[in-house]
Amino acid sequence: xxxxxxxxxxxxxxxxxxxxxxxxxxxxxxxxxxxxxxxxxxxxxxxxxxxxxxxxxxxxxxxxxxxxxxxxxxxxxxxxxxxxxxxxxxxxxxxxxxxxxxxxxxxxxxxxxxxxxxxxxxxxxxxxxxxxxxxxxxxxxxxxxxxxxxxxxxxxxxxxxxxxxxxxxxxxxxxxxxxxxxxxxxxxxxxxxxxxxxxxxxxxxxxxxxxxxxxxxxxxxxxxxxxxxxxxxxxxxxxxxxxxxxxxxxxxxxxx
Length: 256
Ligand SMILES: Nc1ncnc2c1ncn2[C@@H]1O[C@H](COP(=O)(O)OP(=O)(O)OP(=O)(O)O)[C@@H](O)[C@H]1O
Known about the structure:
Layout (H helix, E strand, L loop, with lengths): L1 E8 L2 E9 L6 E5 L6 H9 L10 E4 L2 E5 L2 E2 L3 H6 L1 E4 L11 H6 L8 H5 L5 H13 L15 H15 L3 E5 L7 H18 L2 E5 L3 H7 L2 E6 L2 E7 L5 H8 L13
Parallel strand pairs: 3-9, 3-10, 7-8, 8-9
Antiparallel strand pairs: 1-2, 1-4, 4-5, 5-6, 10-11
Helix pairs in contact: 5-6, 6-7
The protein binds adenosine-5'-triphosphate (ATP).
Adenosine-5'-triphosphate binds next to strand 2 and helix 1.
């Protein structure tokens, strides 16, 4: 998927010759210390971030979306196939949860239809089904900015379902959630992966979430891939190598 990708900000290499390949339908955790390049890699995959000119290339679902430091026209179609979930600001605050989820259908409709809220009833049914599936249909009419963080994250997952996404890129989706909501969101991502065959790449600060929910883990450190393998292979020695000895206590913080 990403081959020899570098991204430089001023004098800092956020990504340094990163090559990773994630198969369709795979669920992968992306971990690493703060500033190691996780968000930059996800943003580059969606084309929100241009990569350095050079040999680097990013392919999404078989189509090249970035090459020679430029996004290609294929990036639009690739984005349509990718659901994005962020730590915050996933939804448009003043719109209802339902309208936010309907925005997932926007890419498939002629512009005017979405603009005037003239949603096809099949899409409305789909949106309600998606809200029901993620467990927040009771809040459909509520303004998004009055929902809890966990409800908003689940709304973002429902939007990805309505969008018909084939894959999900989630950037610290549980970082600001309480443990119960975090677990629910992680379980939903696992369900989408196992039941719907959606590919999931999720960045996580909590190592134990990565181990519990993902079979494969990729670790970045200072812009380089320092581990790519089964989550069972992440022992304390490896984690010290990734995060440094001073963070040993933090690896298992969610177990407390
Ligand atoms: N737009 C930008 N301008 C300048 N530097 C940037 C920009 N975006 C990222 N960086 C730098 O690139 C490096 C990687 O950042 P990135 O956000 O990808 O890390 P991260 O692993 O996602 O960190 P965190 O876990 O804290 O979110 C950091 O040193 C960051 O300061």
